[in-house]
Amino acid sequence: MSTDYETVIGLEVHAQLLTRSKMFCGCPTAFGGSPNSQTCPVCQGMPGVLPVINRRAIEFAIRTALALHCTINAGCRFARKHYYYPDMPKNYQISQYEEPLAVEGWLEVAVDGAPRRIGIERLHMEEDVGKLIHEGTLETARASLVDFNRSGVPLMEIVSKPDVRSAEEATAYLRALRAILLYLGVCDGNMEEGSFRCDANISLRPRGSKEYGVKVEIKNMNSFKNVQHALEFEARRQAKALAAGERIVQETRLWEADKGYTLSMRSKEYAHDYRYFPEPDLVPLKVEQRWVDQLRTTLPELPVVRQQRFVSQYGLPAYDAELLTQSRALADYYEAAVREYPKPKIVSNWVLSELLRELPGDDEAAITRCPIPPKNLARLLALIDDGTISGKIAKDVFEKMYRSGEDAETIVRREGLVQVADAGALAAVVEQVLAANAPAVEDWKKGKKQSLGFLVGQVMKTTQGKANPAIVNQLLLEQLPKPS
C-alpha cells in the first residue's frame, strides 16, 4: 500500500455470553439444537410479551468491562434499534445506545514486540438475532430458512476507538480480547460457530492528517486470518481508488474468503436510520457500586499477568509464555503438567509441539477433552529421563496415548518399546553397522564428522529406535578408527 496514506481501523466485537438462558427470557442458549426448538413467545417477538433482564448476563458484562479497565456507568438503559432482517422476529433489536453499560477502557497489545494501547469506546448489551440457512449458494439459493434458536441469546458488543493502525494490530487486538473472555469464562470464543465475531470499520487518510477518511464496514469474517486478509485487501483497494481520484463511499462490504476480495453489500446506515428510542418495556438499569466492587474481587489472573508470571516463575521465553497463555485451559494444562514434572521448558516444548499438533482446535473444550491428562504427559517425560524410552520413541508413544487414552507405561510394556541400554548388546549392533557401511567409516577417517550422525541413525534404524543414543555414540567413537 502507498506510504502516502495512514490506515485507521475500529473494531466492533460481538461476543455471545455463556449464560444458560437468553437475554430476556428463559429459553436455553445451547448451540446445535434442532431448528426453532429453543424459542418462546418472548424471543419470537409475539405481541404483548414482556422481556425480563438476565442478571447473569449483566454480571458477565461487568466483569469483562472491569478486565478492560472500563468505567461502569451507575445507570444505563436499553433501547430499541429498528431495522428489518428476516432473521429478526420483532423487526427491532433490544440494544443499548446513548446510555451503555460501560465506557472508556483500553486493551494493550503487542505487534513485533512493540506495545500499543487500543482504546475501548464502549461496552454494551443487546440480544442476538436468528440465523438464515440458505439452500444452495447465496447466488443460486432456491429458498432461505430461518432458525430462531439464536434469537435472544445475550450479546456483549465491545467497540474499540479508531486506534488500530494495521491489519496485524487488528488481529493482535482480537486475539488478546478473545483470551480475556476465555479467562473470564464469559464466552467460548468460537468464531466458526459465531459466538465471537467481528465487524471492522476501515478508512484511509493522508499521512499526518487529523481528519478521518470515509469508513467502510467489513462483515463476514469468521477467523483471525480472514480478518487480517480482509483488512489488507480493503486498505489496498481504498489506496488504489484514492490514488485514481475516486471517491470512497460509506458502505458495508462482505469479505469473500474463497475469492480474496470484499464485495459491496449495502450502503452503510447512520444512527438515525435505526430510529433508536428507549425500550418502553424495560426500566432503566441501576448498577450498584457495591456489586461492581464485589465482581472485581472475582476476576481471575488475566492473560498478560499470567504471561509475565510464566516468564519470571518458569524461566520461559516470552514467545512460549505468550502462546501458552492465549487459552486459560492450555495454561492450566501446562501448569498442572509442570507440577508433576518440574522441568518447565521441556513441558512447554511438548505442549506447544506434540499436544497442539494433535488437538482438533485451540478452543477451551478441545483442550479439556484432551485424552492425555497432564499427569500422563509428565509420566511419559519421566520415562525419557530414567532411560526407559528414547525421545524418538516417546513421540510415537505420545501419538498412541492420544489415540487410545492409555498411559505411557501401558503402551511401552505392551509393545516392548523399552530402550536398549545394554552396552554389550549394542556393541554387537554397532559392529554390524560399521561392517555394512564401509564408505561412511572411510569418510570418518577423512575427517567428515557428519558421518557419525549417519552411523548413529543406522544403529537406531537397526534397533527400531530402541537403542540408547548416548551409549550408541560412545560405542561408535570407541570402535571407529581415529580420523587421519
Structural features:
nine-stranded mixed sheet; Arc Repressor Mutant, subunit A; elongated; three-stranded antiparallel sheet; 3 domains
Distance between the termini: 59 Å
Q: Any idea what the radius of gyration is?
A: 29 Å
Work out the count of structural domains. Answer: 3
Low-confidence segments, given as residue ranges, are none
Number of strands: 16
The side-by-side strand order for the widest beta sheet comes to 2-6-7-10-1-11-12-13-14
The largest sheet is: 9 strands, mixed
Going by helix content, strand content and strand pairing, the class is: alpha+beta
Mean pLDDT, all residues: 90
Counted by DSSP, the helix tally is 16
As a percent range, the share of strand residues is 15-25%
Tell me the helix content: 25-40%
The backbone outline, from C-alpha atoms, is elongated
What does this protein structure show overall?
- The chain is of the alpha+beta class.
- The protein folds into three domains: 5-293, no CATH class; 303-415, no CATH class; 423-479, Arc Repressor Mutant, subunit A.
- It has 16 helices and 16 strands.
- It has helices at 55-67, 167-184, 224-243, 289-296, 303-314, 318-324, 328-340, 344-358, 364-368, 374-385, 391-404, 408-415, 423-436, 438-445, 450-462, 469-479, and strands at residues 5-16, 71-72, 75-76, 79-82, 92-95, 102-111, 114-127, 131-135, 143-147, 154-160, 196-206, 216-221, 251-256, 261-267, 277-278, 285-286.
- Helix 3 (224-243) links the parallel strand 12 and strand 13.
- The longest helix has 20 residues, at 224-243.
